[in-house]
Design a protein that fits this description.
Blueprint lengths: L14 E3 L2 H24 L1 H15 L4 H35 L1 E4 L5 E3 L1
Antiparallel strand pairs: 1-2, 2-3
Helix pairs in contact: 1-2, 1-3, 2-3
Bound molecules: zinc ion.
Zinc ion binds next to loops.
């Protein structure tokens, strides 16, 4: 992808594509994915069993409550990772379509 020239400096040497959407997408996607997976785990039998399976493993060297929490955290992290990947991909698409650039020399922001 060809970089546009800075309207102030007239050069493309310091131009970078601003990836705000990708960063926001990763964060939002991560939270949404984690919450979705957590809720799904609570509501579904599969999630419950997975949580109990992990909790049994953990409680073999700690107590059951900590084990269940650890199990849920594990499911949350798994969901958050999936959500973050999807969110990052969506954000990247937004970034590329809107093409907001920044000049690192003069700080000018402009659309390419
Ligand atoms: Zn500039």
């Amino acid at each position: 992808m060809e970089k546009p020239k800075c309207p102030k400096c007239g050069t493309d040497e310091f131009i970078v594509l601003i990836k705000t959407g990708e960063q926001i997408g990763t964060t939002v996607g991560g939270i949404a994915g984690g919450v979705t997976a957590g809720v799904a785990a609570v509501e579904s039998k599969v999630g419950e069993e997975a949580s109990e399976l992990i909790s049994e493993f953990v409680s073999s060297f700690s107590n059951e409550t900590i084990g269940k929490v650890t199990g849920m955290v594990g499911i949350f992290i798994a969901g958050a990772t999936t959500g973050a990947i999807a969110g990052k991909q969506l954000g990247k698409t937004i970034d590329e379509s809107r093409s907001l650039y920044k000049c690192n020399k003069c700080g000018e922001k402009f659309y390419g």
